[in-house]
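QUALITY CONTROL LOG
STEP: pairwise intake check
CHECKER ROLE: data steward
CRITERIA: each record must contain a sequence immediately followed by its structure tokens, with no blank fields

ENTRY 1 OF 2
RESULT FIELD BELOW
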Amino acid sequence: MAASKTANFSADPNLRHAWLASLGLISVARREAGNAVANAAATADRLQRHAVGYAVDALDIARGGAITLREQVEPKIAGFGAEVEARLAPVLEKLGIAAPPSRKPAARKATRRATPRKSAKRASTRTRG
């Protein structure tokens, strides 16, 4: 017959149990703190990417609105200028003042760009020795 083992096991906790439990608690807390820092960094990065994306979207919307507004306003301003000139022309003729010639936008002249100069390296005149 096999001899049965008797367990040297105490049901009530002692100082060794408290020590081992505290070591386990410290290791779990350390691991979770590292995970919390990594999660916080990932969340901050994600929020930064979202903020940049929203800023770019807002900028695109503002540019689109400005372009649309300019497309609506420019023809009205040109029409208003033509209307003012048409109404002033008879008055200027009665006063004997010649109407200014209609202005045409000046064409841009083609200009050559200056080529960047290469910087000459200075030769060393000092000798070592």
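ENTRY 2 OF 2
RESULT FIELD BELOW
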Amino acid sequence: MSGSYRKRGIAMFPERMRALRRGCGLTLGQLADALNEMDVSYNQKKNTRSQLSKWECGVNTPTYLDIRQLAEFFDVSTDYLCGRAIKKVDLVETLASSADVCFGVQKLDTKEKGELYELIKGFLKGRKERGLRGTVEENGDMQLNLENFDEEDDRC
């Protein structure tokens, strides 16, 4: 898998990779060394500073296994790393699951997730009772729209 990201319209990967690396305070060489030290059975190829630089510049495209390893290293999804936008998140399902839920760097425990669920449920019920409906503002800010909210079934 090689070729220019720009030609293929996949410009998010280089930007996200660079942001994640810089956010961790790593140089390209340090990231290459860290990836090479990872104990992964699916990718035995050694990474180099030059190779990672080409990925960040969009000159070359990493393989799926390279993307998987980077996602694992940075603790993000491959979808995020490749630039896929989140279209829908079911908060009821997320808060009820055993998945880690974080607010910034603060990980929420089970009790906090339950409290957050109750806060959101109360907030939505109050807005519905007051007849408030959300809209998309001219500046693009999204306001809450409760047309599909049913207090009997909290799922959208």
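INTAKE CHECK: passed for both entries
DESCRIPTIVE NOTE, ENTRY 2: The chain is about 50% helix and 5% strand.
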